[in-house]
Amino acid sequence: MLIDTSGKLIRLSEILPDIPFDSFLVPAIILLVAIALTQFVLAFMAIKKLSLTPFLGIFCGAILMIWTIVEIYYLSFNPLSVTFLVLAVLEIICAIFFRCSVNKQNRIFAGGLLR
């Protein structure tokens, strides 16, 4: 979408009238920054085991979910969009469970120090 903003290269030019943009450049930049970049930052934070990782995981999952819902609304229902919607929900669930497990481990560790 960044190379050919008309969508002809990937055979998407027929859906261009259905979206609120004149070309695919703006959606491609939004997709690159909002989804790809945040997922890479999340992966880096998870590797470094930073404390804000679960919150960014929830944020990334929510962004992916919103993007997919808007995509289904403007374009059409397709299996790939549903797959990404399921992945977004799983990302949010995993981030919540990760946050709960970190809190539980911190309470156990802190409780052991206080005794």
Give keywords:
mainly alpha, 71% helix, 115 residues, 0% strand, 3 helices
Tell me what the structure shows:
This protein has 115 residues and is mainly alpha-helical. It has one domain. Helices cover 71% and strands 0% of the residues. It has helices at 25-48, 53-74, 79-114. The radius of gyration is 19 Å and the shape is elongated. The chain starts with 24 loop residues before the first helix and ends with a helix.
Rg, rounded, reads 19 Å
Strand-pairing-aware structural class: mainly alpha
Total strands: the figure is: 0
**Low-confidence runs of at least 5 consecutive residues:** none
Number of helices: 3
Whole-number mean pLDDT? 78
Tell the overall outline.
elongated
Biggest sheet layout: none
Please give the domain count: 1
Distance N to C terminus: 59 Å
| Secondary-structure element pattern, one letter each | HHH
Can you give the helix content as a percent range?
Answer: over 70%
Strand content: under 5%
Topology:
Blueprint: H1 25-48, H2 53-74, H3 79-114
Summarize the model shown.
With 115 residues, the protein is mainly alpha-helical. It is 71% helix and 0% strand.
